[in-house]
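INFO  loader      accepted 1 record
INFO  loader      residues=92
INFO  predictor   begin
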Amino acid sequence: AGFRAQGWRSECDLKLVGARNLPKIFADRDRLKQILTNLLSNALAYTPEGVVTVQTWVEQEKLWMMVKDTGIGIEDDNIPIVFQRFWRSEQS
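INFO  predictor   done
INFO  writer      dumping tokens
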């Protein structure tokens, strides 16, 4: 299944960076898909130009995943509350 995001703009590049042989993990497949979909959708929606990077790596026997973008970012005052349920920036 492919990834489709509302707000995808052709001026934004999507990069995948990571090791080829990632370890198998024990995780809730649906939740992991939901989390990554939300992170990618937000990154793509708020990066009209630039790069969205999905990176994976293994460190201390743990699999790490990161979604990074060159979009508008989050104001410093909002960082402590960004993960509160139902919070949205005034820029939304």
